[in-house]
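Exam revision sheet. Question 4 asks you to relate a sequence to its structure. Input first:
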Amino acid sequence: MIRAVFLAAATLVALTPLAHAQGFETPARAAYVLDHTTGTELLAKNADEALPPASMSKLMTLYMAFEAIASGRLSADQRLPVSEHAASYGGSSMFLDTTDRVRVEDLLRGVVVLSGNDASAVLAEALSPDGTEAGFARLMTERAREMGMMNSTFANSNGWPDPRQRMSMRDLGILASHLISDFPTFYPMFAEQEFEFDGRVPSNSQNRNPILGLGIGADGLKTGHTSEAGYGLVGSAKQGERRVIFVITGLDSTESRRVEAERIVNWSFRQFAQRDIGAAGTRISEAEVWMGERNRVGLTLAEDVSVLLPVMSGDDLAAEVVYQGPVEAPIEKGQALAELVIAREGMPATRVPLVAETGVARGGFVPRVKVAASVLFDRFGPEGLTLPGLDPLAEDPAPEAEATPEAEPATPATEDET
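Answer key, structure tokens:
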């Protein structure tokens, strides 16, 4: 493996947990904060512990409903029946009954804004392979695994207390990130603060997200509360070009949830600044090439790259290019060859793919012989060479000039020669 220093800076620092490095403590039982724009993890406290998610698990039902609409298996205008099972749910509710046939779009808002347990169950039964909420819950678990959510299992669609209903805060952060990135047309629904449905329950028409409307860029996603789980929130906020996602749970009141959510948003934006490293296509370094028509190839950024820096740490960072080399030809333009590893004090390393700037064809016979000879020379010295007269480190000799015959001396002419 070859490592090449790219940016001159302070010596590579040991990576420490970011929350401690920045002095941020939270009373939440578990928490996870992600800078969505750069993919930087800002805080992780018990982030991988599988905990009761309460209504925050409704985000998984919403994600799968959005997928069904995008694939054409469900329509926003389609009306769905309400089963006795769905209507039997208490807690936060749209107060549906079995005589209702409700538009899918209204059910979505009923879940997002009103946190309707009944609305979530109606959607689940419509999408279940066997028509039951339990069948849909099994599908939720399978889909979560496919999305990389390895600490999530589901027993129902809405977070109703069940010992089998568990999610980690990191998994909820992954899910929130997918909702934002995969369904930009649906995401604005999470910022809606009121939904009256048909006016049947005026007292349940307000979004429970406590930081919407505070002027801090908050625009989602979902609250949760049970006596077992405590008060929790999956939230997101955007300021300028930066977006932050956070998840908290285990707080003891709605007020402590509001205070902690606002505090995390302010800390995330005020204590970190975004720095651009380079645009896609920027040449960063070179890699050695084996058996190619050229012995080096440029390495460029595969995508635009920016990183977060703690505002109090200055601009010092260190980076190195890492790859397995030399890289054997042929090489295609755009082929992933290396990584740029960027380290900042007190923050996790950022790893960025680097790709071949140009293609490199496999060398012909003479370049390949010279490469092989060079390897033998490096390993065994001149004695290892078996091709007389071939110095692998020498430049190709200039062609010898072609000899021209000397002219015959001219015979002087005489006057009497006829």
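Marking note for examiners. The CA atoms of residues 389 and 400 lie 16 Å apart.
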